[in-house]
Amino acid sequence: xxxxxxxxxxxxxxxxxxxxxxxxxxxxxxxxxxxxxxxxxxxxxxxxxxxxxxxxxxxxxxxxxxxxxxxxxxxxxxxxxxxxxxxxxxxxxxxxxxxxxxxxxxxxxxxxxxxxxxxxxxxxxxxxxxxxxxxxxxxxxxxxxxxxxxxxxxxxxxxxxxxxxxxxxxxxxxxxxxxxxxxxxxxxxxxxxxxxxxxxxxxxxxxxxxxxxxxxxxxxxxxxxxxxxxxxxxxxxxxxxxxxxxxxxxxxxxxxxxxxxxxxxxxxxxxxxxxxxxxxxxxxxxxxxxxxxxxxxxxxxxxxxxxxxxxxxxxxxxxxxxxxxxxxxxxxxxxxxxxxxxxxxxxxxxxxxxxxxxxxxxxxxxxxxxxxxxxxxxxxxxxxxxxxxxxxxxxxxxxxxxxxxxxxxxxx
Length: 412
Ligand SMILES: [Zn+2]
Prior knowledge:
Order of helices and strands: HHEEEEEEEHEHEEEHEEHEHHHEEH
Largest sheet: 7 strands, mixed
Bound molecules: zinc ion
Shape: globular
Helix content: 25-40%
Structural class: alpha+beta
């Protein structure tokens, strides 16, 4: 497997750079760290010899093109990955490389023994007998989400450049910021990307293929109370906190993240602040089914209306904001990119693992911008945490899948 000699060193080089996105920032990209990293990505694309390398000032995305070397009749295809890492310490990331893992031992992450990766806690470790695992030192996340995807796409392009005998159509690649804070794809120029289909390479373990995500909205409930002295409160006080509790209690207790799984949607109260005078409850609403998603939003409107009708004046204000939609709605109309990915995996003896994501991907937005974009595995396990790790062999398989998709696309 010396096929992708640069994959490991490229990946290690990427993860050592702190590219954590910043949810409190108003700039795009959200952190200067990301801007710098994207600059180095553009330089690497130049050095490798890709064409048309651009940094979009609106989105921060770096895009490039690998020109076709076939007869020119193949539809352009795209691969995308995000360069930012999640909301967890990313300073001085010092990856450990565990060669030829035996599939059963505990892995000491830190020399002091404080952090250990144990198969008893993370049974997926058993799947990696004989593999080279890349782990953290326990103090940071690893950032395989999604530097694995970045490294895999880059390595696949390098492979094609070094093997001109392998024929392919035009391939567009894109590397973007701020996926982890949910805003990266908002400004992506999907039309300008110039492809019919694309893939994000941002999934988890071997075989993951995702084309169904949640529909997502945020709900902010603001309540204006009336604060008076408790001694003379009778018939006068309107306690914003109490009204907030009343609002929340009218939502079904069964429809909470901790009580749902699979295709079951939910209302998730994730922030609640306030005083008697004013209170605010912030929710996310999630459902795979579009109609049920719309019904959930209506349910919230109805509760607000009903409460307002019982109060001395309308005190409950509800603001609903759609965040992204289930990409399945788009892909159902043309399953070609999903079928290509499935066939690529089965051709490579990888069993496609398909299930509805209880979240979104950049593809949830990009698909609705006109470029159907399912998500492929990148290999990471235990993402967003100090227990994050990835197998080099799974990363190699991801490169195989990218290459196989470009090959199958020529025949599609
Ligand atoms: Zn990711």
